Amino acid sequence: MTLSPTPRTTVGRLRDRGATDRAALYDVLDTGLVCHVGFVREDAPIVLPTGYGRIDDTLYLHGSTGARWLREGPVCVTVTHLDGIVYARSVFHFSMNYRSAVVLADARKVTDEAERWAGLEAIVEHLAPGSWGYARVPSKREMAATVVLAVDLAEASVKIRTGPPGDDAEDITDEVWAGVVPLTSTYGAPAADTHVPTGATPPLHVTSRH
Q1: For residue 109, what are the CA distances in angstroms to 63, 65, 138, 156?
Q2: Which of 40, 88, 116, 173 is at a distance of 20 to 30 A from 142, taking alpha carbons?
Q3: Torsion of CA 34, 126, 83, 187, to 10 degrees
Q4: Closest Cα partner for 96 from 181, 11, 177?
Q5: pLDDT tens for residues 4-36?
Q6: What is the C-alpha separation between 128 and 135, in angstroms, rounded?
Q7: How far, rounded to the nearest angstrom, does the alpha carbon of residue 27 sit from its chain's CA centroid?
């Protein structure tokens, strides 16, 4: 499936970096862990980081019923991966290699109980695969204190930069180093909390993170 840009999600500058395949959107979302949600409250823009999960073309967010930002209405959700710092021969052409997604939608409060459970499971499994069936699921009291929002992925754009610096021909010289310093994220060794028996082996869904 292809992305179908709207006037609000059509890439303007450097259009060649805009992705047209919906699979690129899924890749950015599925390989990220934190999104930033932008909205307007009391005539002021606010952007907050939070976890998320995806089921098909719906993104799910959650939080406490006391959180003022968890309301229905227009939102902008972004996810960005920084893959490298681009060093150029001119400071004008310094850049970053990145993959980013922007989603515009009217957030919908999930009231159907089956969808609420599915949304929460998607969020947990996105952050920590294998944990939903391993740890205790939410109680009735915890579910009552939780809001789940659904964000439709119909209106979205993806922009990607890869490769070396785009130096001007007159700046290319052997006297100045140029290139890319890659950035990667890695998982460290699992560290048990103080209530885990000494020497206990973490479950496979924890040790297999890489």
Answers
A1: 11, 11, 18, 20
A2: 40
A3: 100
A4: 181
A5: 778 887 777 767 777 888 999 999 999 999 999
A6: 11
A7: 10
